[in-house]
Amino acid sequence: MRFVTAMVWVGLWIQAGLSPLLAQPINSEREIGLENTAQRTYTTSRLSGESPLIDGNLRDSCWAQVSWSGDFTQRSPEDGGHPLQPTAFKILYDDRNLYIAWRCYDSAPDSLVRRMSRRDGFEGDWVEINLDSYFDKRTAFSFTASVSGVRNDEMVSNDGRSWDPTWNPVWYLKTSIDSLGWVAEARIPLNQLRFADLPKQVWGIQVTRRNFRHESRSVWQYIPQNSGYWVSGFGELHGIKGVKPPRRIELQPYMVASYQRFPALDGDPLEDGSRYVLNTGLDGKFGVTSDLTVDFTVNPDFGQVEADPSAININGFQIFFQERRPFFVESQNIFEYPVNGGGGGDLLFYSRRIGAAPVKQLSADLEVERYVSQPEQTTLLGAAKLSGKTRKGLSVGLLESLTAREYATISSKGEESRLAVQPLANYVVARVMQDFREGNTVIGGILTATSRSWDGQEFSPYLHNRAFSGGIDGIHRWSDQTWKVEGSLYGSRVEGSPERILKTQTAFEHLFQRPDARHLSIDSSATSLSGYGGHLDFGKIRGNLTFNTGVSWRSPGLELNDVGFLSQTDLIRMQSGVRYQINRPNGLFRTYSGSLNHRLNWNFAGQHLHQSLQTNLRGEFRNFWVASLGLGKELKDISQTALFGGPSLRRPNGSSVSLNVSTDRRSRIIYSIGTSQVWGTDNGIRIWSVEGGVDWRPIDALRVSTLASFRVFQRPVQYVGRAVFDELTRYIAGSVDQRTLSITLRINYNITPDFTIQFYGQPFISRGRYSDYKYIANPQSKVLAKRFTPYTSSEISGVDGVFNIRESDSLLPEYSFRDPDFSFIQFRSNLVARWEYIPGSELFLVWSQSTTPPGNPADELWRSFTQGFGGQLGSHNLVVKLTYRFYR
Q1: Of 187, 193, 253, 732, which is the most exposed, with the fewest CB atoms less than 10 Å away?
Q2: CA 702, CA 697: separation in Å to the nearest integer?
Q3: What is the mean pLDDT of residues 19-36?
Q4: Phi-psi region of 574 (alpha: psi -120 to 50; beta: other; left: phi over 0)
């Protein structure tokens, strides 16, 4: 109770600002310089004569046709202050291009930080321009020039709340350093932008400069840090006349050759140890109108995509992996629709479902000399998406993709045959959003449909025939974007055989079979399942003090995992939070913030499941070190999923503390370390983790980073399995001790701004040992020891990896379960050489490998980690890919 009281006082301290560190009033107009927020205008001119040579020198006479614009305002760290170094820019245009020149003055040019990176790395000193060519005051195109010549570009949406670095337009850049500072010169083809067909254009514009050695940012159009908006506060670009939106046409064919080596299996004619593939495909886009663009891909190749990190979860929940495939990553913000108000990773559309591993997994049978070779992923035959935004504020996203019917090859007694393991499938996603009141009110909707082509009933228990989902959402901001209310309503329907729908009802996300869930019942004859959900959230989003409160819900029948991501249903959550933040230097700090959050959970029967408090403090010191502290306390925790379909299980209330520290990110060597501790009443849980990293910059062109992580997870009641004894279901648990160790290494080397070599590698091991087996007796008891009954030494015996149980005087085992101990070892890596030999056209050379040796849970963790990969060949893949981009 003292812990809870302390947390409440911390929250009140944060809100009221009673600490000496927070003892200053909330920024007024005078304090943060809001008098500088008056809208600015820059007037460009049509280019007359020859266009400038993009060489970073600004010697061309045409630059004299327009004037410089400067007078920037500092935004960080001194919000509203004078910039540390002056900055100016010029803009010219013709019928096909926009030309931009930046003059970044610097009193110490030799101190400029010229760190290089891969594209979109944003290293060192840089300057950027944001163009709201739609002039919808919500979206913008961002072009960033680093002093080292690296190009960075992003698609900005939702008034600056979303920045998508996967957008890679074709544009040209050169930079140079002289006695006055540095210069950047760029040419941006107009066909890379989207704008209305009007005789006179008015665009939103913002220019930002980063001074790396002082970690300072200044802007042309001043927008306070705590304003709550970005694009809607831009200045205006005038003077563009008589320019027609170009009909964007881009084609990018590719050729790829790959060679794979893997361990050959003795006697297996299907796995001889090598495989060679030569393939071609096409990516492209074309403008349907001046506002809408179609992107398409035919037989895409994702060979240069970085491998997913290794992970293992013993608690049943799905593991969420980020999308990395270029076609789906680009413009993915248009299709985003979180199903719980913006947290937890659950989504109505999760593109990783498209092209996932086949659902039917076959195995070899050596007794009958049966060998199997099956695809690891489902082939994506083609996909297309229509996206864009009209000048009336209508955003449109339409995606359709087709995946192949996949077959496994079976060799049995010298004869080969094929068996389907994945049906032909079509996925459709449609998303629309309409802006009102200059984007301060937005209403949207989404629909998804998945259909599969059947040939017989071989997939009946594995997949739904059809799956549909849809929803509406909206957000309304008022009082100069100080307040907001947002909400959503969504639903789903899946159809399939009775066997498939039964599996859905009893899947981990639903667990209709829970014996204490009287509001649920299984229908074994059902051929469809429907559900719904939504959220409503209200808050203050502008200023030093912000807060929000909201509720979200997901009915038991909601099912989104055909083309979405859904971790749990039958849940109602209320969450409230308050945050106080200062973005100006004060005392020891450059910036600091604190927050307090409260969460409550129920199920749809009204059972109270969870209550917790969480507070977080974060500060950036004057020396640029960053530290954060988190404290948490559970007041109640009842899990509906802990027994995998058994009754709800009360878990010990947990307390948590976390601490993270990182050194000055401007240094050549950056260190970071973090640790967290979770402990429960009655020793009901213990989680301890530590993570440390080093980021080293020996030269501007080379970056080496490594991150090591060690985690201990211990719980005395961890589900193992179930059995039937004397017409009773026994839910069996054990004490688990899981230890996980991983090391992630990344190396990035820039030979030139457009020629990079990248390495990624991660050895990973997770070992779990179980002991003290018991069965659940009274899952809701408030006393931990009364929730289970331990097996005595006379009741349990283990032989050959199986535990046999005799609860009565029977001479024979009455039921049994397998030894749940495990040891998972894996090493994944890839090496990518990428050369953008002309803007938009690339050559890739990729080597990747994956090794998963067998592990022994009895071995010590470090020994398994250091010796587990010895003598293992693994799978090695070499890929050469060439692309060429045609555009006009």
Answers
A1: 253
A2: 6
A3: 38
A4: beta
Which one, of 765, 871, 772, lies nearest residue 822 by Cα? 765
Taking CA atoms, 216 is separated from 176, 296, 624, 668, 699, in Å, by 21, 41, 11, 18, 22
d(CA 120, CA 165): 6
- Cα diameter, the chain: 102
pLDDT digits (tens, 9 = 90+) for 570-590: 999 999 999 999 888 888 999
Bridging pattern class, strands 370-373 and 406-412: antiparallel
CA atoms within 13 A on the CB side of 603: 23
Count of alpha carbons within 13 Å of 585, Cβ hemisphere only? Answer: 14
SS3 for 64?
Answer: helix
Q: Which residue in the block uniquely carries the two structure tokens 């809701």?
A: 780
Give the pLDDT band (50/70/90) at residue 304.
low
Of 132, 144, 134, 121, whose CA–CA distance to 208 is shortest?
144
* 191 close to 888: Cβ distance less than 8 angstroms: yes
For residues 700 and 710, what is the distance between their CA atoms, to the nearest angstrom? Answer: 31
Q: Which of 30-34, 295-299, 377-381 has the lowest mean pLDDT?
A: 30-34
Distance CA 777, CA 651 (A): 14
What was the pLDDT predicted at 617?
97
Domains contained in the chain, CATH given: 33-241 (2.60.40.1190)
Is residue 551 a contact partner of residue 573, using CB atoms and an 8 Å limit? Answer: yes
For residue 872, the model assigns a pLDDT of: 61
Q: Are 706 and 727 in contact (CB under 8 A)?
A: no
Is residue 279 classed as helix, strand or coil in its secondary structure? strand
